[in-house]
Design goal:
The chain is of the alpha/beta class. The chain is about 35% helix and about 15% strand. The structure holds 6-O-phosphono-beta-D-glucopyranose.
């Protein structure tokens, strides 16, 4: 049975981030970002005080998108993408982060990239800060704990809004802002050295980020007519491990730890439950006069979110202050990826409904993807049925969410081309529809090769999703 569910102007696309793809980490005036000094990824890896000569850092070359973007954009266009999400590397524009004037060569790179996308009718969707704060802002200022970051960020935002106002309409301020709790270095550029002040630092940094997001939204609307500024969260749903009310309520509280960010950014005020948390943990968030009005006045236009998996939670597991990412308990009803991430397509429908009911603002699925091993067979092909199966199941659930009444702007597959894993720094955790010849140690020709899923995603886009509802989808390829 064929179904026509996806809106006519649905933004089908792909998403990447500058630090996981561009490479050219110190070319054309770019300064180092936190990612350029991290080994083994942002979840378990460590941040060096400075970049050590001869040491392998995956972001330094990544997949060399900086020099190969034309070839890659042509592949995205061949797939029929309507939009493409990437981030601007802050330290390409402001090498240290606190300069007053920008680096022209950095600005020129994104002009060229956006022109290349627009040449094919691909709408750029831009994240202003995706886990790649200039390293100097961490080392000199202590990252987002420091209020001065608001000024540096708004200065940077104003420069890029003015420069790209004719080219970029869809923006997001901070990638996965709720990860301030789990991976504060990536999301908040803060090195948590003191256990005792950890929560204090996280909430203070969160407040600065809320003010910066609101000010960026204000500027974005003033400078770019018809622009849209999104909040961006990682929204893995939380399931209670049992129907024991303790598990149920704990899971609810853990969920609120994430939704705290969208509550503030989309509704414009601190929710009441925050008061209790701050009191219990003795947290004093410093605010300046006018902050709360700014947050109230300039809320996000849409909610962008990443969705990969669900998490199963049991009472007693940490809710606040557990850094390093949460995997949760085993869910016996779900299969897992090669990296142990539960595959839960229905969870995507659940989250869409959950957040649409809560905010009634448009949703944009800006990351969803399958990271797994790929093999090149004797004929030189990559038959990635598991990736296609993941894609199909999630899109079918997304279509259900649309039928449930959720307003969904678009869907961008995470890593339409293989990129460096943010969490582990690996290349072999592959998400792409396009294979990149590179291994975890940095060896390889960087040659691009289409996988079976490349042709499939093209068909999905060409038919505006209708092909998903035909029988035996995967076997048809
Ligand atoms: C999200 C990030 O958390 O998940 C991406 O926004 C990241 O940057 C993606 O790449 C997948 O995670 P990983 O660790 O598999 O790269």
């Amino acid at each position: 049975m064929s179904k026509d569910v996806f809106p006519k102007d649905f933004l089908w696309g792909g998403a990447i981030a500058a630090n996981q793809t561009e490479g050219a980490w110190n070319e054309d005036g770019k300064g180092p970002s936190i990612n350029d000094a991290i080994r083994n990824g942002i979840v378990g890896g460590s941040l060096d005080n400075e970049i050590v000569d001869g040491r392998y850092y995956a972001s330094h070359e990544a997949i060399d998108f900086y020099h190969r973007y034309k070839e890659d954009v042509a592949l995205f266009a061949e797939m029929g993408m309507k939009c493409f999400r990437t981030s601007i590397a802050w330290s390409r524009i402001f090498p240290n982060g606190d300069e007053t004037g920008p680096n022209e060569k950095g600005l020129q790179f994104y002009d060229d990239l956006f022109d290349e996308l627009l040449k094919y009718g691909i709408e750029p969707v831009i994240t202003i800060s995706h886990f790649e704060t200039p390293l100097y802002l961490v080392k000199k200022y202590g990252g987002w704990k420091n209020r001065r970051l608001i000024g540096f960020f708004t200065n940077y935002s104003e420069v890029i809004f003015r420069r790209y106002k004719e080219k970029v309409k869809y923006w997001m301020a901070f990638n996965e802002v709720n990860h301030l709790h789990t991976i504060p270095l990536a999301a908040g550029a803060i090195e948590l050295k003191n256990e005792e002040t950890k929560l204090q630092d996280i909430y203070q940094a969160s407040h600065h980020i809320f003010v910066a997001s609101a000010l960026a939204t204000k500027m974005c609307h003033e400078i770019i007519p018809n622009s849209q500024m999104g909040a961006m969260l990682s929204l893995s749903p939380i399931y209670p491990n049992t129907c024991n009310p303790d598990d149920v309520f704990d899971a609810y509280e853990l969920r609120r730890r994430s939704l705290f960010y969208s509550d503030v950014l989309l509704r414009g005020y601190y929710p009441n439950y925050t008061k209790r948390i701050w009191k219990e943990y003795n947290i004093q968030v410093e605010m300046e006069q006018g902050d709360e009005e700014i947050i109230k006045q300039y809320t996000a236009d849409y909610l962008g979110f990443s969705y990969y998996r669900s998490t199963t939670h049991q009472a007693g597991m940490p809710i606040l202050g557990n850094t390093g990412g949460i995997m949760g308990l085993d869910n016996p009803y779900l299969e897992k990826t090669d990296w142990g991430w539960p595959i839960d397509a229905k969870g995507l429908r659940y989250v869409c409904n959950e957040v649409y009911d809560r905010y009634q603002k448009p949703l944009f699925i800006v990351e969803n993807g399958y990271g797994g091993h790929d093999e090149i067979n004797e004929e030189g092909n990559i038959i990635d049925d598991a990736r296609m199966d993941y894609l199909n199941k999630h899109l079918i659930q997304l279509s259900e969410a649309i039928e449930d009444g959720c307003e969904i702007i678009g869907y961008t597959w995470w890593g339409p081309i293989d990129i460096v894993s943010a969490g582990t720094g690996e290349m072999k955790k592959r998400y792409g529809f396009v294979y990149v010849d590179k291994d975890n140690e940095g060896n390889g020709t960087l040659e691009r090769r289409k996988k079976k899923s490349f042709y499939w995603y093209k068909q999905v886009i060409d038919t505006n999703g209708k092909v998903l509802f035909e029988d035996k989808l995967v076997q048809k390829i």
